[in-house]
Amino acid sequence: MERGALAGGSAAAEVAGPAPTAALAEEERESCAGLWELPVERCERRPECGRCGRPQKVCLCPFLPVHPLKVSTCLYIIQHPAEESRVLRTVPLLVACLPPDKCKVLIGRRFSEDRYPELAAVCRNPSTLILYPGAEATNLEEIALMPSSPSVMIIIDGTWSQAKDIFYKNSLFRLPKQVQLKTNISSQYVIRTQPTNTCLSTLECAAVALTIMEKNKSIQETILRPLQALCSFQLQHGAQIHHSKEHLLKNGLYDKPMPKNKRKLRRMELLMVTAVQDCGKISTVPVRPVTKLCSFRSLKILCFVFR
Ligand SMILES: [Zn+2]
């Protein structure tokens, strides 16, 4: 009965004229008719510099070393696929500072022994380190003091959760010795919000790690120069300095809603305690912080607070 009634209703509408939705669609087509003929500006990506990866107009090559740095340590950057598409990436600058055989970037989430035999061999090599914080991680400076310094370091480039996912879901990455950085230097990547003043971007972590492993302080200065130029340029063109979450909390300027997730809230509480204590007990490692709930977007950093 009901189906018959509905069908009848529909038929009546057709007889009476076009249905309201059809009439609206027709109206819309008419109002847009002129727009379709307008010339369309093709959305093309700005041409990029082949060396630094920045748009050609803002090429950072003048700030890169003339010749790649001579280093004996080889870096493997394990980059989450989401990092590749970010506008302000720091890894291309790192790559441009080092010889091609000393900085290899592998993009992906899962790295199996079958698909990445070279990486698997690297992970099994006792002279390989992985930069990832944790209770098991040794301070890199202690390792560098050993007579036979390791020669390969793996760094994960991604947000906190991306890095964690990559580290824990790829058994290969738990084979190398785990290390972390313990430094008080402040991040110079001021155009991204960071959890604490001492959390570093991937580029900065690599610069600090190489300086320690190569026992050469000028490395850090050379690798950070293009980053300083990038930030300076962005600030001159309207970018704002992003204070760290730690700074905002310490100065009562944090105006974002606190996370509802208990684990994230705990992390924020730890950050606040640290901010209040202002005792510099924060270690730095590459990764990124808590994002969505705190509205803290992107950084290639991970903050690890010692308890
Ligand atoms: Zn360039």
UniProtKB/TrEMBL annotation:
Keyword Lipoprotein belongs to the record: no
EC number annotated for this UniProt entry: 2.5.1.25
Major enzyme class: transferase
Ranges where the DTW domain occurs: 45-239
One Pfam family, short name: DTW
InterPro entries: DTW, DTWD2/TAPT
Organism superkingdom: Eukaryota
Keywords: S-adenosyl-L-methionine, Transferase, tRNA processing
Catalytic reactions on record: a uridine in tRNA + S-adenosyl-L-methionine = a 3-[(3S)-3-amino-3-carboxypropyl]uridine in tRNA + S-methyl-5'-thioadenosine + H(+)
Entry similarity comment: Belongs to the TDD superfamily. DTWD2 family.
PANTHER family: TRNA-URIDINE AMINOCARBOXYPROPYLTRANSFERASE 2 (PTHR21392:SF0)
Protein name: tRNA-uridine aminocarboxypropyltransferase
Organism this protein belongs to: Apteryx mantelli
Gene giving rise to this polypeptide: DTWD2
